[in-house]
Amino acid sequence: MRKNVVVRREEILAAAVEQVRQRGLADTRVIDVARALGVSKALVHYHFDSKERLLAETFAYAAQRDLDSLAHAARSDGTALERLWAVLDVYAPTGDASGWVLWIDGWAAALRDEGLRSVLRDLDRRWKEAIAALIRDGVGSGEFTCADPEDATSRITALLDGLAVQQVVRPDISAPPSRTWVESLVERELGLPRLG
Amino acid sequence: MMPEGTDRRTLILDAARDVVCERGVDAARMADIAERAGVSLGLVQHYFRHRDRLLAEVFSLESERITVRWRNLVDPYADPLIRLFEYLRLVSREGTDPSVRPFRLTWSLWLEFWSKANRDAELRGEVATIYREFSAPFSEAITEGIERGIFAPKDAVPDVVDRLVSLIDGLAIRTLLGGMDQPRMLALLVDSLCLELAVPDEEAKRLRQRL
């Protein structure tokens, strides 16, 4: 158990995110997280005194990781449209939707947990702020035509959330509608000429 | 006197739905459901054998009820755009009649449903049917509107419908989490509908006046 000494809080949280993705929130036990790291259950409990505490921090950690990727994507070079796509590609489940399992379980759990609700609300707000800012940039530079960037942002992000749900739970649309499906909406929302 | 077979089944299903909404799908045990329904655990097992079977039936009954309610509350001969508007009003539960289940109860059940379907292959088998039922009234109204020359969507009808359904689900999630309210959800849906179907500005304006 020499490894115990060096396992940090953050490694535990990263392992917990992975376990929740694979097993679902309800079926993730502290022992699963410990085993994934090859450490004792006691060590996990040393950092997080209960399973509830561990899972609550798991969501906060995953949210922060998403926001870090968001910040990175929003800083990229290029036109407003290129930057917007860099951000939407981080957000959108146009490829592998398995990462969304965590959030789908989180939404259900948040109905009974105010702390988690506020983590998720905050995450949503920050995504929306970043996307709306990019849309306003594009409107300012004449790239986009959009009467209400906030409304457009709410629709685009809600659509992506709903799409994620369908991709995860519906076997009949297991082939992701791909980026064109989302592109079509973005083009309409931002008054862009149709591609291809 | 004990109610007849069908009624007892429904009684159990309704109790199960309420327990799932209150405690979450994973905490809803057969014993809790029996207690809520005021019947024995044996009777619940007699009708549904195991918990997953019972839960699958809860979700499909609820989706069936929604489409039946829609058909009762919305005039099938109304203009397709008005029908679509009425469906959106029903999903966002804005100013609808009191017989419709409250927003939070309906949508929290669907959140539980997704979370469960995610981990349960048997239930996933039902999901396609449930989504098909839920989408059918939208598909019919959109197809009719295209035939009558009122709508001119750029994409195929199934794509437009899937996108609308995704948007409804996504906005409902935000509303449940407290980042949005029902009037705004409906307004965003109406704008999106007009955009997707390329509804002429005059018509779109008239529709927004109904908000």
Distance between the termini of chain B: 47 Å
Largest sheet of chain B: none
The fraction of residues in strands of chain A falls at: under 5%
Q: How many H/I helices of chain B? A: 10
Q: Can you name the CATH architecture of the largest domain in chain B?
A: Orthogonal Bundle
Distance between the termini of chain A: 58 Å
- Count of domains of chain B: 2
Q: Beta fraction of the residues of chain B?
A: under 5%
Question: What's the CATH architecture of the largest domain in chain A?
Answer: Orthogonal Bundle
Features:
heterodimer, A: 196 residues, mainly alpha, Arc Repressor Mutant, subunit A, Tetracycline Repressor, domain 2, 9 helices, 70% helix, 0% strand, B: 211 residues, 2 domains, 74% helix
Structure description:
Chain A has 2 domains: 49 residues, Arc Repressor Mutant, subunit A (Orthogonal Bundle); 140 residues, Tetracycline Repressor, domain 2 (Orthogonal Bundle), CATH 1.10.357.10. Chain A contains 9 helices and no strands. With 211 residues, chain B is mainly alpha-helical. Chain B is 74% helix and 0% strand. Chain B is elongated, with a radius of gyration of 19 Å. Classes of the chains: A mainly alpha (196), B mainly alpha (211). At the A-B interface, helix 6, helix 7, helix 8 and helix 9 of A face helix 6, helix 7, helix 8 and helix 9 of B.
Compile the SSE list and pairings:
The complex is a heterodimer of chains A (196) and B (211).
Chain A: H1 9-23, H2 30-37, H3 41-47, H4 51-74, H5 80-91, H6 100-110, H7 114-140, H8 149-169, H9 178-189
Helix pairs in contact in A: 1-2, 1-4, 2-3, 4-5, 4-7, 5-7, 6-7, 7-8, 8-9
Chain B: H1 5-23, H2 30-37, H3 41-48, H4 51-73, H5 80-91, H6 103-117, H7 121-147, H8 157-177, H9 182-196, H10 201-209
Helix pairs in contact in B: 1-2, 1-4, 1-6, 2-3, 4-7, 5-7, 5-9, 7-8, 8-9
Q: Can you describe this structure in just a few lines?
A:
Chain A is built from nine helices and no strands. Chain A is mostly helical and 196 residues long. Chain A starts with 8 loop residues before the first helix and ends in a 7-residue tail after the last helix.
